[in-house]
Amino acid sequence: MDGWPYGFFTLLRFVVFVSTAYIAWMAYETQKEKWVWIFGFLAVLFNPFIVIHLNRGIWSFIDLVIGIFMIVSVFVLKLERKQSLN
Questions:
Q1: d(Cα 25, Cα 31) in Å, to the nearest integer?
Q2: Which end of the chain, N or C, is less packed with Cβ atoms under 10 Å?
Q3: Where are the transmembrane segments (predicted)?
């Protein structure tokens, strides 16, 4: 991660913030309360306006865990949606 410019991380933080805020809003609209809380928390954690300062090692771990979580959540949300339509 040392090779990436600071602007890249700022842009990435903004993209994650917008994505998680949007998913939280969609979860709110569909009354999926646990997803509202989870993605709302992630939006706060990654917001680019009031930055939460942690050391690089902690952020690397958080980024890995959240990245895996977001990939898994796509499949879980699709499955939940499919089940609610039936």
A1: 10
A2: C
A3: 6-28, 35-52, 58-77
